[in-house]
Design brief:
It is a single chain. With 380 residues, this protein is an alpha/beta fold. It has nine helices and 16 strands. The strands form four sheets. A six-stranded mixed β-sheet has the order 1-2-6-3-7-15, with helices on both faces. A four-stranded antiparallel β-sheet has the order 10-11-9-12, covered by helices on one side. Strands 4-5-16 form a three-stranded antiparallel β-sheet. Helix 1 packs across helix 3 (106-122), helix 3 (106-122) packs across helix 9 (361-379) and helix 5 packs across helix 6 (268-281). The longest helix is centred in the middle third of the chain and has 21 residues, at 201-221. The protein binds zinc ion. Zinc ion binds at residues 78, 108-109, 165.
Length: 380
C-alpha cells in the first residue's frame, strides 16, 4: 500500500475496509496495520490481547500521544464489523459511487477510525500538553468484549472520550442499557397419552412468557415520554424458545432467552428481580414445574450530562443539538472508567449493518476536521 494514500481519510477508510474483521475473526493483523500508521507519528503503543482461548487473535490497541499521565482525551472505536452475505455488493473490496463509499464497516465504523487516524496525521503532536489516546477495541458487536477487558486490566484514565460510532456527526449523550438472561424450566416427563403423570416444562414456559409480556405492558405504561428515547419506555423481548424432546412426550425441559433494555437511571439488576418475581408467581398452580433464571449481562444505559464541557463543545462545534441513539455502544464502559463519553462519528446508523453499507466521503473529511479540532480543544 502506498504510504501517501494512507493520509487521506477516504483512502484510509478503503484500506481499513480491505481487512476482513467480522467479529469472530482475529483482528490482530488489522491492529498491526493501525500500529504501523500510528508509530511514525510518535505514539506510545500498548496492546491488550484477550487471554480467553475462545477469542484467539483478539486485541485492543491503545496508542498514546503526549504526556504519560491521567487526563486528556480518548478517541475510541471498535475494529470489528457485523457479518456480511456472500452476495453483498461490496464487502472487503470497497467501491466508490459518486461521493459515496460502499463496503462492510464503511459506516460502522472503519470510517470513524480512519477519520481519527487522519486527524492525528494532520496534528503537530509536539503541541500536546495533555494525553491523547486512541483506543481501538475488539468484538464490540457481540458484547463489547474488548472494552470490558480494557476496563478490567488497563483502564484508561481520561477526562473526555469521543466514540466515533455513526451519529451523522451529531453529539449523542443517551442510549438505553442492555440486559439479557436465560430462563430454564424443569418439569417431569411422561407418556403424552396421560399428561397427568408428568409436568410439562413447555406449559410452564408458556405461562411464564405470557406473564412477562404482561410485565412488558406495565413497563410501557410506566414510560417517560420526555426522555428522548424511542420508544420512551423499558422494553422486553423473548427472542428464542427451546424445549421438549418428542411429540408424544410431556416435556421435561424448556428454556427461553430474554433481553431487557433499561432506560437511563434504571438498575438492570432491580429490573431482573422484578422479572424473576413475575416468573415465579406465574407457576404455582402448575404443579411439578420449577423455573430458574440466569442473568448473563446487565449493562447500564448511557446518560452523559448535557452540561459537560465536551458535550457543550461538540454542540457548538457541530451546530447540532444533542441526540439519543437507538443502539448500544461502549460509552457506558468508558463512563465507568471515569470519562465523559459522547458518541459522535461520521455516517448514519441507518446506513450500517445492511447489505449496501456506505458512508459519505464528505462526512469522513468533516469527521477528520472535527477530531483534529477536538484534539486542539482538549489536549493542548
Ligand atoms: Zn458500531
Amino acid at each position: 500500500m502506498d504510504v501517501s494514500s494512507s493520509r487521506d481519510p477516504v483512502k484510509l477508510t478503503e484500506e481499513l475496509i480491505s481487512y476482513d474483521t467480522v467479529s469472530h475473526l482475529p483482528n490482530e493483523g488489522f491492529c498491526a496495520r493501525l500500529e504501523e500508521l500510528l508509530e511514525p507519528l510518535g505514539a506510545a503503543i500498548q496492546r491488550c490481547g484477550s487471554p480467553d482461548p475462545k477469542r484467539p487473535g483478539q486485541v485492543n490497541l491503545l496508542a498514546r500521544f503526549g504526556p504519560d499521565r491521567d487526563g486528556g482525551m480518548a478517541l475510541a472505536g471498535h475494529t470489528d464489523t457485523v457479518p456480511y452475505a456472500a452476495e453483498m455488493r461490496s464487502t472487503v473490496v470497497p467501491e466508490r459511487d459518486g461521493r459515496r463509499l460502499y463496503g462492510r464497516g464503511a459506516c460502522d465504523m472503519k470510517g470513524g477510525i480512519a477519520a481519527m487516524l487522519n486527524a492525528c496525521q494532520r496534528f503537530d503532536m509536539s503541541r500536546l500538553r495533555k494525553p491523547l489516546w486512541l483506543a481501538f477495541t475488539f468484538q464490540e458487536e457481540i458484547g463489547c468484549h474488548g472494552v470490558k477487558l480494557l476496563e478490567r486490566v488497563a483502564p484508561l484514565r481520561v477526562e473526555h472520550c469521543i466514540i466515533g460510532e455513526p451519529t451523522g456527526l451529531r453529539p449523542a449523550v443517551q442510549h438505553k442499557g442492555y440486559a439479557a438472561g436465560v430462563f430454564r424450566l424443569r418439569g417431569s416427563p411422561a407418556h403424552s397419552s396421560d399428561p397427568r403423570q408428568g409436568a410439562s416444562a413447555i406449559h410452564g414456559a408458556a405461562r411464564v412468557i405470557d406473564a412477562l409480556y404482561g410485565l412488558a405492558e406495565e413497563w410501557q405504561g410506566r414510560g417517560d415520554p420526555a426522555c428522548g428515547l424511542e420508544p420512551p419506555w423499558t422494553t422486553l423481548n423473548i427472542g428464542k424458545v427451546e424445549g421438549g424432546s418428542a411429540r408424544n412426550v410431556v416435556a421435561e425441559h424448556a428454556s427461553f432467552v430474554l433481553e431487557v433494555r433499561p432506560l437511563p437511571g434504571q438498575d438492570a439488576a432491580a429490573l431482573f428481580a422484578e422479572v424473576e418475581r413475575r416468573a415465579v408467581a406465574a407457576l404455582p398452580e402448575l404443579r411439578g414445574v420449577v423455573v430458574k433464571f440466569e442473568p448473563h449481562e446487565t449493562d447500564e444505559a448511557l446518560a452523559t450530562s448535557e452540561g459537560a464541557p465536551l458535550v457543550q463543545w461538540l454542540v457548538e462545534r457541530t451546530a447540532s443539538q444533542t441526540i439519543s441513539v437507538p443502539f448500544y455502544t461502549e460509552g457506558p464502559t468508558f463512563s465507568r472508567m471515569g470519562a465523559v463519553a459522547c458518541i459522535c462519528g461520521p455516517g448514519e446508523i441507518a446506513q450500517a449493518h445492511r447489505e449496501d453499507e456506505w458512508v459519505e466521503m464528505d462526512a469522513l473529511e468533516a469527521a477528520s476536521d472535527l477530531y483534529a479540532d477536538a484534539i486542539e480543544a482538549f489536549c493542548t
